[in-house]
Every structure is written in C-alpha cells, then in structure tokens.
C-alpha cells in the first residue's frame, strides 16, 4: 500500500494545481480532491512511517528485498493506469499519438567534455598539463561570464525576440571560437591515443536515465524516428564510444573532431560545431534532409546557452539540467519556460476543446523537465 498511497497523493496534487478551482464539471474532481487532501497526505505518511519502523530490524539483504517489492508495486500501479481504456484522443505518449506514416527526429545535446587526465600527453608533463588545464578552465569561465553580462541587461522582452537573441548569441559564437583557438595553441590535445579516447568515452557518466532512454527508443518498433546528437565537444569519437558502450549505435553524432596521425592526435581540431549558429545550421541541415520524404515532428533536448536557437526552432524544445545562463538569456529575450507536465495538460485541453493540437517551432515556449524519466514518459509512455 505504501507506494500506491504516495503515488496517488503526488499525482493528485500535481493535477489539483492545474484545475480551475470553481470548475465542478470534472468527472474525477471528487477523486482528485480526496487524494490531494491533507488528510490523505497524513495517512500516506503514517503508512510510510510504519514501514520504516518495521524495517529497522531487517538485514541489508532483507532491505534490498523490500526495496525491490516497493519498486515492483509502483511499476504495477503505473502499468494499471497505462492499460486503462481512454475514451478521447490524447497527445501522449508521443510514440503512440503520431500517425505511423509520420516520422520524428529527436535531437539532443549531451554535456560531454574530453578530459585529458584520462590519457597520456607525450609533449607535456603532468604538472604542466594540470596547470594549463586549470588556466584554460579559469579563463573560459571568467570570459564566458563577462560575455553573458555584456548581452544580458536592460529591459526584458515581453514576447520572443528571436532576432535579438540571435544577434546576442553572435557574441557567444566569437567567444567560443577564441576559446577553442587557445586550446589548440596550448597543445593540451596533442598526443592522445584514439584507444584511450574511446576508453574514456566508455567510462563517461551520462545524466541519469539518458542512456536508458536511448536504449529503449532506438528499439521501439512503433516509432519511425531518426536520432542525432549535436555537441560542442572537441571529439566525436569520445561521444560515439560513450553511447556505443551502452549498445546504442544508431545515433548520428555531429560535433568537432580531433585530427590523428597513426591514431595519435596532432593537437588540432576539425572545427565543425563551435557556436550556437553552427549548431542551428547543422540542425536545419538535418531537417532539410529529413523533410525530403515528408515533414517530420522535431524534438530537441538540451540545456546550455548554445542550444537555445535549436530548442526554439524545434517543434518541441525540451530543457533539461539547464544552466543559469540559459535561463537568464531566455528570460531576457522573451522565452517562456513551462514545466512539461503543465504544458501537456494545456495541450490536452486544446485537443479536447478545438479538436486539434499542433506543435510548432518558434512559439517562444520551451518545456522544462527535471529528469529523463519525464522525457521517457512523454515520448514512450510507461
């Protein structure tokens, strides 16, 4: 009962916050009022407290069994809800809503940096390498903050000012290119072995749930989709190995590349995706290629300043683990950040009331999530 009580209470409170207080026509109003009440919350707490007290004397092995049972109960309850018949058209999960003839392009921008400490640099001692990395990192952080301060300020736009945002990001583009030039000139990327880069990528810890999401979605037979990764990372091999180590080989990576001589880096970078504009150009090139066979719904997932233009251009822009700079810049130029759950409720109302619901880019709305589980539920369901 404990996981079910907590699930009912949490879901009801989320729904309650989105309902019109005086609207009594909702067929589930009594159900929601009951499960979102303070009395029910206290009841759920009492059951959890009792479970905690009963578990005090259990061994570690027995606690693991209890934990597995708790998760299994939660999963069964979620499965119960997901298998109930639905009498009206819905907007989620996206994979089941789309017509089989339609296609979807999912594009993400994972945060991944190549850490030179995982490999050996032949022309630089460890002490010099550490000192150089520290200097470059500090300089990057200071100049980035200065760059942001120069473009954020003054009166905030009341609605999306896309051209103003694009012009502001030109300053970020210049900054990013200067930073990459310093990295190349420093020599810190020289002497890296391809084998070591791949090994470092395999050990990369992605955001929790990211790898699992792509493992599920690339094997989903009902979803006709393409998957692309856009990244500022200096090394595409690093990203490819990070995903291939989890059995995800269907992702097409668009990033910068290191140059090699006999599998050893020369220290130079093939500069392909250095700025927000180059990310957007890559994004548009992907869409133009995809749309040759018919227009596709596009989903872009990201969380950095360099993702803003692509997030806004996509039909559905999802912000995860956003940086403070992204929010500041978005607020300055009239971007609306809406929690995905409440945004979907609004879209569902549009579908019920108007009979249609369109996802369109450049709406000025970006949807925020706190975890990849939310993205999984939105696109694939439970």
TrEMBL record:
InterPro entries documented for this protein: Thiaminase-2/PQQC, Thiamine_Salvage_TenA
Name of the featured protein: Thiaminase-2/PQQC domain-containing protein
Thiaminase-2/PQQC domain span: 1-81
Parts of the chain that traverse the membrane: none
A family per Pfam: TENA_THI-4
Lineage start: Eukaryota, Viridiplantae, Streptophyta, Embryophyta, Tracheophyta
One CC-aspect GO term: cytosol
UniProt superkingdom: Eukaryota
